[in-house]
Amino acid sequence: MSAPTLPQPSAAQVEARVDTLLGRMRLAEKLGQMIMGERASTTPEDVRAYHLGAVLSGSGSVPGENRPADWVALNDALWVASTDEADGRTPVPLMYAVDAVHGHANVRGATIFPHQIGLGATRDPQLVARIARIVAREILATGLDWNFAPTLAVARHVYWGRTYESFSDDPSLVATFAEHFVHGIQGTLRDDGVLACAKHWIGDGATFQGIDQGDAQVTEAELQRTHLPPYLAALRANVQTVMVSFNSWNGTKCHAHPYLLTEVLKGRLGFSGLVVSDWDGVDQVAEGLDAAIVLSVNAGVDMIMCAADWRRRLDGLQRAVERGEIPLARIDDAVRRILRVKVRSGLVDRARPSARPWALSETFGSAAHRAVAREAARRSLVLLKHEGATLPLQRTQRIVVAGKHADDVSHQCGGFSAAWQGTHGNEAIEGGTSIWQAIRAIAPAATLSVDGSAADPAAHDVAVVVIGELPYAEGMGDIRPGGRITPPLPGGLRTANLEPYGSTLELATRHPEDLAVISALRAKGIPVVTVLLSGRPLLVDRELAASQAFVAAWLPGSEGAGITDVLFGDHDFEGTLPFPWPAAAPSPDGVAPARFPRGFGRTYR
Ligand code: BGC
Predict the structure, then answer these.
(1) Whose CA is nearest to atom 12 of ligand 1?
(2) Which of 170, 191, 204, 278 is catalytic?
(3) Is 579's C-beta closer than 6 angstroms to any atom of ligand 1?
(4) Ligand 1 center to 13 CA (angstroms)
(5) Contact 141, 400 (CB under 8 A)
(6) Active-site hit among 474, 514, 565, 574
(7) Is the CB of 279 inside a 6 Å radius of any atom of ligand 1?
């Protein structure tokens, strides 16, 4: 471990440095700073020629063989281009951003932690800080600068496909975790941290019917009471960047909302860092791209995140400035904020990525990091039902292990793992352990039979059945009772056109194969311990009734041994529900009778 080496500048020193840089920059250089290109469509030459301020990797977008060295080499080349001083160019290092929302999960061999809903179940902010610290270290090992995390959504409707990115539906819990997460990611904002990003401002978890990118039809008082507190906490923790949300607030897109972006966030709350748009989120606010850019930038977007064609956005920005539709003062303010973040975070003083203290650190994906992921998985488990003395399991028992998720590390990790929508099987997530692998390692008489057909009451004492949702991300995880791809939004608002996951929260309808396995085992007289992997609470009354023990494991990440640590009694259950568990389908505004209340969780005692 190396101590931070960069000195901490005072606020006055930061502003003086920003003034000097800004004073040197030509208009083209300023406009380039406001553009963030995606890795696949942005070369070092583009960065040099157009002065681009940042690059991102969308989830699943990876360089070379996807090893830490490939990432370091890529950001080295981009950094060299951005700091080129030839022809009077102002050297301003670019920032490289990723979605390390539950570990640096895009990169082969990274440690993958439970998704935020599971961390919410642990109720332990110190654990969240430790995890965020490790995530920052793994990002630094790959030479990158910026993490698009934490998600500060207070998810109020479990139909929403991003519910698992939400720590809880309790604003005060999300606020506490927000503060610890930001501290963990940013560290001292010198050599030992990366930039955090509070997202998605604001009301992403408040949309009508839980529709991703939908309309938050709530009063200002409700926005303030429920959805603002996590941001106040993140700002207190000195978060340097905020991402705008795709959603609208009462019919107006957040990306085109001067009140929310400029008046409230930058004005009243005094946020002095940068506001980045979401993935082509600017495009959604008007019919023509130029008009959309004018609306968003004037509303307060400082940096435009571009999925593919950053050049069109840069040209549009330039035309808008030439036509006087975006005042130069707004451009200067946006660039000042971007430069301020780069100066405050020490980026302007850092060596090239490959020469930074943590670059290629061997702690990436290390046993020590995995031990923390295992601890988090273990502590996130919530015991919903336990009959008789089925648990804890004994290592000598003849256990039949079944269910489609029993031997699948990718399914344990869910979305934003190796690929945007997640993936399948044990190959894509290197270094992890499936639940079956973890059981096999300690219970020599255990056997795997995914569909349960090999189960035999004469040969098996007990069954562990691992069931649940398949990986998904964002709108593709939505539950839409009408089953529509494009749900109607008031005022004809546009959203991404993503196919939802299903039309009901009832697991037995969406995944009847799970109940079939449990029922077949029960019919054979074998007691069943069910482990549910899911991004949210589901309607599981039938699976619950058929099981002797039932564990909500959320999306526990790469370390399956976190589950066996508890199933075999080396540790007790500690997790409690971060969301109420519904007993019936929720109303359009997310309200449902509770089968188990928030905070529920049984133990062995
Ligand atoms: C998501 C953001 C994410 C961005 C970049 C968007 O689709 O809404 O949460 O940070 O993509 O990958």
Answers:
(1) 58
(2) 278
(3) no
(4) 33
(5) no
(6) 474
(7) yes
Q: Is residue 498's pLDDT more than 70?
A: yes
Per-residue confidence (pLDDT) for residue 263, from 0 to 100: 98
Distance CA 458, CA 112 (A): 38
SS3 311: helix
Write the DSSP assignment of 428-468 as a string of letters.
SSTT-B-HHHHHHHH-TT-EE-TTSTT--TTT-SEEEEEEE
pTM: 0.97
Angstrom CA distances, 212 to 229, 318, 486, 501, stand at 21, 31, 11, 12
With the most atoms of ligand 1 within 8 angstroms of its CB, the residue from 101, 102, 148, 282 to mutate is 148
pLDDT in tens, 141-194: 999 999 999 999 999 999 999 999 999 999 999 999 999 999 999 998 877 899
Instruction: Indicate if 474 belongs to the active site.
Output: yes
Gap between the Cα atoms of 206 and 249, Å rounded: 9
Domains along the sequence of the chain with CATH:
98-355 (3.20.20.300), 381-596 (3.40.50.1700)
Backbone angles phi, psi at 201, to 5 degrees: -75, 115
User: Residue 220 and residue 260: Cα distance in Å, rounded?
Assistant: 11
Say how far apart CA 307 and CA 282 lie, in whole Å.
11
Asked if 595 and 604 touch (Cβ cutoff 8 Å), the reply is no
322 carries an active-site annotation: no
Ligand 1 pocket, residue 201 CB under 6 Å = no
**Average pLDDT across the chain, whole number:** 96
User: Does residue 4 register a pLDDT over 90?
Assistant: no
Task: State the Cα–Cα distance between residues 58 and 76, nearest whole angstrom.
Answer: 19
Structure tokens at 509: 């309808």
Q: Please indicate whether residue 421, judged by its CB atom, sits closer than 6 Å to ligand 1.
A: no
Q: Report the b/e string of 579-600 with b at 16+ CB within 10 A.
A: bbbbeeebeeebebebbbebeb
Centroid of ligand 1 to alpha carbon of 352 (angstroms):
26
pLDDT, tens only, 433-481: 999 999 999 999 999 999 999 999 999 999 999 999 999 999 999 999 8
Helical H segments across 268-327, by residue range: 289-299, 310-322
In angstroms, the CA 245 to CA 255 distance is: 7
Q: Which string of DSSP letters, residue by residue, matches 140-201?
A: HHTT--EE---B------TTSTTGGGSS-S-HHHHHHHHHHHHHHHHTTSSTT--B-EEEEE
- d(C-alpha 349, C-alpha 258), whole Å: 33
3-state SS assignment for residue 72? helix
How many Cβ atoms are within 10 Å of 143's Cβ, its own excluded? Answer: 26
CA of 393 to the centre of ligand 1 (A): 41
Nearest to 8 by CA among 172, 171, 193: 193
Angle between helices 289-299 and 310-322 (to 10 degrees): 70
**Ligand 1 pocket residue status of 58, Cβ below 6 Å:** yes
- Whether 258 shows a pLDDT value over 80: the answer reads yes
Q: Exposure of 88 by Cβ count < 10 A (0-12 exposed, 13-18 middle, 19+ buried)?
A: exposed
For CA atoms 553, 556, 560, 562, the dihedral sign is negative
Task: Retrieve residue 508's tokens.
Answer: 């037995």
